[in-house]
Fold this protein.
Amino acid sequence: MTATKRMKRALVSVYYKEGLDELLVKLHSEGVAFVSTGGTQAFIESLGLPCDAVEDLTGYPSILGGRVKTLHPKVFGGILARRENETDKAQLVEYDIPEIDLVIVDLYPFEETAASGAGEQAIIEKIDIGGISLIRAAAKNYKDVVIVASKTQYLPLMHILEEKGAETSLEDRRWFAKEAFAVSSGYDTAIFRYFDGQEDSAFRVAVNEPMHLRYGENPHQKAQFFGAFEDMFDQIHGKEISYNNLLDINAAVSLIDEFDELTFAILKHNNACGIASRASVLEAWKDALAGDPVSAFGGILVTNVAINREVAEEINKIFFEVIIAPDYDTDALDVLMQKKNRIILIRKEQGTSPTQYRSLLNGVLVQDKDLSIQTGMDLEAMTGKYPDPREVDDLLFANKLVKHSKSNAITLVKNKQLCASGVGQTSRVDALKQAIEKARSFQFDLDGAVMASDAFFPFPDCVEIAGKAGITAIIQPGGSVNDKLSVDYCNEHGLAMVKTGVRHFKH
C-alpha cells in the first residue's frame, strides 16, 4: 500500500483560519494551486498567494445567502473522479472539470452555537451543508484525494510536506479519511442530539481525543477515557491518571457534591472510609481520618474548600493517591508536591452530566443519575418517637453517605462524622455487623449514633442489632410489607425511625 499521489490543486474553504497561513505558504512553495470561496479566498490572497474563485470554476455565484457555494458537479466531480478509471477521466475532459487532489475544509460551529443559548434559527444556520459534503466526498475518494477536515490536522499535513513534499502515500490518505469521518460523524451526532432533546430515542455519543491510561482495572487490561477531563480538573502535579483513579475521582466528586457545609472525605475503591463536616478544614480532615486510618492508606482525598499549609502538613503524613480541592495555598502545594507521583487536582466549576452510562452484554445501559437529596422536610416518622435536631442532622448526613456506598450498605454516623460503614454485602445484616465491628475496632462510642440503610428492612433483625449496639435513630426508605415488625421493635425499645420513600441502591 504505497501508491503515491501528488497534490496539485487544493480546494480550501474554512471557518477557522488560525494556523492556516503557514500551511498555505508551504503548499504554494510545493507548487499546489488554490481554489476557494469568499472569506477564505480573501485570506489566501492577503498572504500574497494566487487563488482561483470557486465561482469562476462553476460559473455560478454563491446563492441563497451563502447556503450554496460549492455544491456543483465541477467541484464534486474534481474530487470524486477516480484517477485510474478511464470513463471518469473522459468525463472530466468532456465537461472541463479540473482534478482536486486536496480538500481543506472545516465545519460551522454548530455545537458552540447551540451551547451559547442562541435562538433556534441561528443554530439551524450553523448546520453545515457544503463543508460536510466536501468532507465525505474527499474521504470516500481517499485513494486519490487528501482530506483535511479540521485545524487539528494541519500539523500532520505539514509534517508530510516537510518530509515528502506534496507527495502522499495511500496510508497517509487513508489516515486523513479516517480522521475526516470522525469529524463528520461527531458533527452529525451533535445535530441529532440537539433535535432529539431529552427524548433519548437513540444512543449517540461522539468524543474525540481519548485520554490514554496507564492500564485498565488491572495491568493486563488496556484502557482509554473518552471525555473532557480537563474541563473539570486541572492536574497540577503527579503521575498519569489511571483507570482506577478515574473511578475513585468520580465517586469522590459525586459524594462531596452532596454537602454544602465544609466537608472532607476519604474514599477507597469508590466507597467513603472516612468523612466529616466541621467548622475548619483541619478538624474535618482529622475526624475524617479517624473514621478509618487503615483504609485511608492509598486512598482518594476530596474536600469542598481550599487546602492551607497546616492541613497539608497533616495530610502529608499518610500515603494517598489523589487529592481534589477547589484550590490550594501556595505554601500548601510546597508540602503536597514533596511526593512526585501524588496526583493533585484542582476542581473547576463544571457540572457533571445528569445521565449515567454503563456497558454490559454488548450494549449500553442508560439511566438518570440518582440526584435525589433528602432534607428534613422529606422525613416521615414511622415510630412514636421522632429524632431530635442533632439526630436529624446526623440521619441526613448518614443518608447521603449510604447513597454513595455499594449495596447492600449501612452507614453509622455520630456528630456528622462517619463512624463506620458496611458495604457491598449480600446480606444487610452482614453489612450492619461489619459496620458495628469496624466502629468498635476504632474505638467509636455508638451510644447516640444513627444508622442509615440504602433499602428497607424486610425483617426486624437489623433494628434489633442496631438498638443493642446503642443506635438511637434510623433512616430508611420504608416500603416493606413487614415494616410494622421493625416499627414495633423500635417503639418497644425507644428508637426513633423515619422513612424517606427513596431507595438508594448502588451496584
In short: The first helix runs from residue 20 to 29. The mean pLDDT is 92. The CA atoms of residues 54 and 449 lie 78 Å apart.
